[in-house]
Specification:
single chain, Clc chloride channel, two-stranded parallel sheet
C-alpha cells in the first residue's frame, strides 16, 4: 500500500507541476498572442485602405524575409515542421529566435499583401514558449506534453476557442491518435491563454446563427454531400501546398530568385483582382460570407491559389484563417446552388475545410460550436466527419504522423 501511495504521489505531483506550468505558459502565450493578433489586424486595416501603396513592394519584402531567415534564422526556418519534429522526439531544440522571426515575417507578409494566415504563428509561439520553459526547468522528459500544451495555448490565445484548441493540439501531432496525458494541462493552458488575450483586448470572432435546420434522411444526405465537397477542397489545399513547395524548390534553386519572381506575379494579380480582395488573412471574405455581401463563385478557389503560392515561395504566416475564408465562401456558393441556409452552410464550410486540410476531426467540430453555437453540433459533426473521411489523409503539416 505504501508503495502504491508513493507512486500516486509521484504521478500526481508531476501532473500538478505540469498544470502549474500550463498556467504560466497560458499567461505568457496569451499576452504574446494578444499583441501579435491586434497588431496584425491593424496591419491588415492599413493595407486594405491603401493597397496600391503596399502590395507592389511584396517582392522586395520577400527578398528581405528570405535573407533574414537564410542569414540569421537557422533551424527556425523549418517552422511547424520543427515543432512537429520536437514533439515527436525527432529533434531536441526549438530556438527561441523562432518567435521574433515568425512574428516579424508574418507582419511583413501581411502588410505587403501576402495571402497567409496566423494560426501557425500562434501555435509556434506557444510551442516555443513551452519548450523553452521546460528546458530551463529541466523537464524535457515531458517534451511532447509541453509541446502539446504550448500548441493548445497558442491556438486558444489567438482564436479564443479553448476547447477546440485543446483537441487540436491533442490530435494534430499524430493523425488518428490522441495524446491524452496532456489533456488537463492543455485545457488549463488554453483557457488561461484565451482569457488573457481577451482581457488585453483581442476580440473573438463569433457569429450567432438563427437558421434552424430540421433533420431528416434527406437533410443528412445533403450534409454528407457538402461534407465530401469540403473534404476534397481541404485535401486539394494541403496537397497543392506540398506539391508546389517541392516544385518551386526544384524550378528555382535560388531562394531569392524564387520569392522575387513569384511575388512579382502575385502582387500584380492581387491588385488586378479587386484591388487586394485575396490579400492577407481573408477576414474580408469571412465577413462578407456572414453579412450578406456578394460572394463570387470563384472566391474560394482564387483564395486557395493565392495562399498556396504565397506560402510555397517563402513568405511567413499560417494557413488556417485562409482555410476559414475558403470554407466560408465555398459554403455560400453551395448553399445558393442547393437552396440551403446560407450563413449556416458558410459556418459548416468554415469548420470543415479547416478540419480536412489539417487532418483533424474533433477540433473543427468544436471550433464550429464555439464560434457559431453548440446548438448546431449535429450539423458540424456530420459535415466534419465526412470532410475528414474524404480528405484522403492529406495535411498542411508535412511532419504530421499518420497512424495506420
Amino acid at each position: 500500500m505504501k508503495k502504491i501511495l508513493m507512486q500516486l504521489k509521484d504521478y500526481y505531483g508531476e501532473y500538478l507541476l505540469l498544470i502549474a506550468l500550463a498556467i504560466v505558459i497560458g499567461l505568457i502565450v496569451g499576452v504574446v498572442d494578444a499583441y501579435f493578433g491586434m497588431i496584425l489586424l491593424k496591419i491588415t486595416e492599413i493595407r486594405s485602405l491603401s493597397p496600391f501603396l503596399w502590395i507592389p513592394f511584396l517582392p522586395l519584402v520577400g527578398l528581405f524575409i528570405v535573407f533574414m531567415y537564410q542569414k540569421y534564422g537557422k533551424t527556425s526556418s523549418q517552422g511547424m515542421g520543427l515543432i512537429f519534429e520536437v514533439g515527436q522526439g525527432e529533434n531536441k531544440v526549438i530556438p527561441f529566435r523562432l518567435i521574433p522571426f515568425i512574428i516579424g515575417g508574418t507582419w511583413l507578409t501581411h502588410l505587403f499583401g501576402g495571402s497567409a494566415g496566423r494560426e501557425g504563428v500562434a501555435v509556434q509561439i506557444g510551442a516555443t514558449v513551452a519548450h523553452t520553459l521546460g528546458n530551463k526547468l529541466n523537464l524535457m522528459k515531458f517534451q511532447t506534453l509541453l509541446i502539446v500544451i504550448g500548441m493548445a495555448a497558442g491556438f486558444a490565445g489567438l482564436f479564443q476557442t479553448p476547447i477546440a484548441a485543446t483537441f487540436f493540439a491533442l490530435e494534430v501531432m499524430i493523425a488518428g491518435k490522441f495524446i491524452y496525458p496532456a489533456l488537463i494541462p492543455a485545457l488549463v493552458a488554453s483557457f488561461v491563454a484565451s482569457t488573457t488575450s481577451h482581457f488585453l483586448g483581442l476580440e473573438k470572432f463569433q457569429v450567432y446563427l438563427a437558421e434552424p435546420f430540421d433533420f431528416s434522411l434527406f437533410h443528412f444526405l445533403l450534409l454528407a454531400i457538402v461534407g465530401i465537397i469540403f473534404g476534397v477542397v481541404g485535401s486539394l489545399f494541403a496537397k497543392s501546398l506540398s506539391i508546389l513547395k517541392s516544385k518551386m524548390a526544384m524550378w528555382f534553386k535560388n531562394p531569392y530568385r524564387r520569392v522575387f519572381i513569384i511575388a512579382c506575379g502575385l502582387s500584380v494579380l492581387l491588385l488586378l483582382l479587386y484591388q487586394g480582395r485575396y490579400a492577407g488573412l481573408g477576414t474580408n471574405l469571412i465577413t462578407a460570407s456572414f453579412s450578406g455581401q456578394h460572394i463570387y463563385s470563384y472566391d474560394f478557389i482564387l483564395k486557395l491559389i493565392f495562399t498556396v503560392c504565397t506560402l510555397a515561395v517563402g513568405f511567413q504566416g499560417g494557413e488556417v484563417t485562409p482555410l476559414f475564408s475558403i470554407g466560408a465562401t465555398l459554403g455560400v456558393v453551395l448553399a445558393n446552388i442547393l437552396h440551403l441556409p446560407v450563413t449556416l452552410f458558410a459556418a459548416l464550410g468554415y469548420a470543415a475545410v479547416f478540419g480536412s486540410a489539417t487532418n483533424t476531426l474533433l477540433a473543427p467540430i468544436l471550433i464550429g460550436c464555439e464560434v457559431f453555437g453548440f446548438e448546431h453540433f449535429p450539423s458540424f459533426f456530420i459535415v466534419c466527419a465526412f470532410a475528414y473521411f474524404f480528405n484522403f489523409n492529406q495535411s498542411i503539416y508535412g511532419k504530421q504522423q499518420i497512424l495506420k
